[in-house]
Amino acid sequence: MKIVITLGSHRHRRILLLLMCCLPFFSPDGLGFTGASMVMVLFKKFQGVVAFAMLIYELYYYVKHLSALGQYRYLKRFIMFGLVALLSVLQIFSTKINGGDYDTALQRIYIMMGAYMVTEIFIVRDTKASIEALTYLFTAAAVMNLAVVILMYDRMGFRPQGDFWLFGQKNAMRNIVVPSITLSAILDRIRRKKYSFRTIYLMLTGILVLIMVDSSASVAIITVFAALLLYLNISDFELLNLKIISVAYVILEIVVVFMRRINIFSDIIESVLNRDTTLTNRTLIWDAAMKSIRATPIFGDGLRELEDSKLVVGNFQASHAHNAFLDILMKCGIVGAVLLVIIVYLCIRQQFKMKNSALGAILGMTVGLFLIAGIVGELWSFGFYLMLFTLYYLPEMARQVEIGNIYTKKRSVRLKLTRD
C-alpha cells in the first residue's frame, strides 16, 4: 500500500507559502519589553532570510526572462524592481559613508524589498488566493494586537516605556489596522459582498485600539477612512480619487511642515486631536531633521540606531523625523527622496488611469490615507509598502478579479468652469 501525503491543491500550497513568506514581517517588536526579546530577534533573522531568498528568486526570474524585457509586463516589473534595488543600495551606501548602523539599514531594506517581492511573486500571479491569505494574516495580527492592548494595558511597563506594544510603538499600529481593513474590503468585493462582519469588526476594533493607546492622529484619519469606505461600499457614489488626495497631501505638506502655518489648523489640533500646536514636539523634531539635511543634502546621513540619532530635542531623542518626506531626505538625501517619489508616483499613477475600478478606489484611499498620516509620522512599514506595490499592479489584479464597477459617475461631484 502506497501512502501519499500532500498539502492539498496548488492553490492551497500557494496560500501556505504566502503565509510563510509574510509571517516574518510581523515581528513582535514589543516583546523586548517583556523579557522575550529572543523571540523578536529570531523573527528579525527569519525576516532577513526570507527577504534574501525571495531576492534570489527574483534575480533568477529576471535573468530567465531577460530576452523578453521588450514586452510591457516584464519591463514594468523590471523597472520597479530596479528602483527598489537602487533605493536599497543607496541606504547601505549612505549608512557606510556616514558611519551609521547596518542592522537598522538592513531592516528597512527587508521591509521594502520584502513587500515588493511578496506583491510580485504572489499577488500579481494569483490575486484571489493571495488576497485571501493576506486578509487572514492581517486579521490575525489585528486580533492579537487588540488582545495585547486589552490584557497588557496597565501591566508589564508598556505605557511608561514609550507606548511600545506587540507590533511596535502606538503610532505604528495603523500599519496593521489600515491594511487589515483594506484587504478585508477588497476580499468582500471579490466575493461579491458590499461588506462583511469581518470588515466591520476590523474597523471598530482598529479604532478602539488606537483610542486606547492614544494615537489621536491615526484615530481621526482612520475613522474618516472607514466611514468613506463603508459609504462607497453601500452606495453608487464615485467619491474622491487618489489624484485629489495626492494634491491635498502636497498642499498640507507644504503648508504645515515647510511653511509652518500650523495655526490655520489650531482649532482642530487642540479640540479634536487634543494636542498642542507643536504637534507633540514634532515641529522641534522637524527643525532638527532640517538641520541634518542641510549638513548632508545629497546622500543623507544614513540609517542609525535610536541611541545614535541626531534628532535630539531637550531630553528627548527620536529615531525618525516624524515626517515621511523629511525622514527620507535626512537618511538618504535628495537622491533617495527622488527615488522614493518616483516609486510612489509610478504606483499611484495606476489608479489615476483606473479611477472607476472598485479595487482601485479602495487601494487609492488606503495609500492616500498613509500619505496624509506620513505628514506627522513615518511610512517605512511592511503594511504601507504592501499596499503601495499592490496598487502598482492594479491593472493586472483587476483583470483577474474585477467583477463589475460598484461606482458610477451619475452622482459624481464635478467642478465645471463656465463663461457668462
Can you characterise this structure?
Helix content is 64%, strand content 2%. With 420 residues, it is mostly helical. The chain has one domain (10-401). A two-stranded antiparallel ribbon has the order 1-2. The chain has a two-stranded antiparallel sheet with strand order 3-4. Helix 3 (72-97) runs antiparallel to helix 4 and helix 4 (102-123) packs parallel to helix 14. It is globular, with a radius of gyration of 21 Å.
Highlighted features:
420 residues, 4 strands, mainly alpha, 2% strand, two-stranded antiparallel sheet, disordered C terminus
Question: How is this structure best summarized?
Answer:
This protein has 420 residues and is mainly alpha-helical.
